[in-house]
Amino acid sequence: MSPVLVGTRASTLATTQSQHVADLLTAAGVPAELVTVTTTGDVTSGPLAQLGGTGVFAAALRQQLLEGDVDLAVHSLKDLPTKDLFDGKLSLAYPPREDPRDALVGRDRLNLDDLPEGATIGTGSPRRAAQIRAIRPDCTVTDIRGNVGTRLSRVRGLEHFASRDSGVGRGTHGDLDAVVLAAAGLRRLGLADVATEFLDVDRVLPAAGQGCLAIEYRTGDTPDDVLQAMSVIEDASTKIAVIAERSLLLRLEAGCAAPIGAHAEIHDNELILDAVVAHPRGTESLRERGQAANASVESAVQLGTEVAELLLERGAGRFTELTLD
To answer: Which residues have C-beta within 8 Å of that of residue 220, sequence separation ≥ 6?
Structure first.
């Protein structure tokens, strides 16, 4: 049997995540190998929100998939737009979710509350920035880019992490007191111990889909054995939770440039969705919670839409460009 070609970005984190999916597929009876693809987000500098936001890391992978150069593509789900850009030509499968939380990595093992007044905290996410500013308005939050090693190397005392990514020696190192990034990425790279604090979702809501990988495939011509393998590795609870989160984003017409957090969980078959829309400067925020008695894909879509409507009715649009139309 010829191996299934799995498209992936070339970063250490992306290839680690994609190899995890390839190993799951192989264990399910379908051999798989990786094909690396360079995306716009990998070669362009500047704040992510100014590079086109959600989808900037996924577009090239999706194009390779549509053209048949790869059979599957693996994404961090939060990197994918919520709107169907391809008229149903592509579909998604969801393996079990990793830790959805954000993680703070502070100098001298300092956590968020213990950072000194005036500390500088780096993040590439407007959502993280807004919520961190709300908790620590005395600190300076600055935009950063780069792979995990590059970001960690910006923390004073962790400059040695620069050697873990390509571009060794370039950029600034050791100039920040802390950085905030996804816990899932640290865990998948075996770097969980470097985190000073995992930020509870009751305090900082993650991005919709954070911690979840998405396996994207062509809807019409993916072989049955590959579809069967993906059905084996897909996690139903993860699928329902992230559909609720992404349905909220879809109704809000928001991407990663908007300071919006969402997190859904299933407890005793009840689906619970928490969401926040924050002012980018962290001066104000609106938070809502909704429940659906029976967790399903259909109830997830409905719940995400309903919670979004509640936020809009409370005036969430005044924080961003969200509208009721």
So the answer is: 89
